[in-house]
Design a protein that fits this description.
By secondary structure, the protein is mainly β. The chain is built from 2 helices and 17 strands.
Length: 205
């Protein structure tokens, strides 16, 4: 029986961790029902799915096995499988992902199209994978390594002319004048000029 829209309640009893999902030429078969029309979110199902006549996506954290005839694709969380004019496409919601089969792994950025071949899966410029089963999952987030802080140095907390900071705070020298000390012919030899600190290669006053 072909359905244009499948109510969530209809598939609530049919879906679960072991539900059979299969891409067919005229739709996506979920259990015994064939979805051929617009996307339906099956939120009440044991394994929430987003499914239409050409796409399938698991909305839970569990993996979802989808049959492509003699081949199978296992979708990780956040991955969508869609049927295209000449094959299939995997996509995420903006994240990179990996596809793995028979010990070989390819990395894709957001989306990748592929065709099913006799030996396995052809991802075009990304490469090919041999085997009857393909596992796709979102790439793990890169965690920045922890940065170790240097130990306290001897003399920490002692203020000296050579130290430009104390506990991470830079020393700032300010001199206030009631009038502009550089105005007039004596500016070159004025006390204001003589009090300007000389710069050093290290930038310390």
């Amino acid at each position: 029986m072909k359905l244009l829209l499948i109510p969530a309640l209809l598939l609530a009893t049919a879906t679960g961790p072991d539900i059979a999902v299969r891409m067919e030429s005229d739709g996506v078969r979920v259990g015994s029902e064939l979805v051929t029309g617009a996307a339906v979110s099956l939120k009440e199902a044991g394994v929430p799915l987003l499914v239409s006549g050409s796409i399938i996506e698991s909305l839970s954290g569990e993996t979802l096995a989808v049959s492509l005839g003699e081949k199978q694709v296992t979708l990780g969380a956040g991955l969508r499988l869609a049927r295209t004019a000449d094959g299939f496409a995997l996509s995420t919601h903006g994240m990179s992902f990996t596809v793995e089969s028979a010990g070989k792994t390819l990395t894709a950025d957001r989306s990748a199209s592929f065709k099913v071949t006799e030996k396995g899966f052809d991802f075009g410029s990304l490469g090919t994978l041999d085997g009857a089963a393909l596992a796709a999952k979102v790439a793990s987030a890169t965690v920045a390594p922890a940065v170790s802080l240097p130990a306290a140095q001897e003399g920490e907390g002692i203020v000296s002319p050579e130290r430009s900071t104390r506990h991470g705070r830079a020393k700032i020298f300010r001199r206030l004048y009631s009038v502009d000390p550089l105005v007039g012919g004596e500016a070159a030899s004025s006390i204001a000029v003589r009090q300007i600190p000389r710069a050093t290669p290290e930038g310390a006053p």
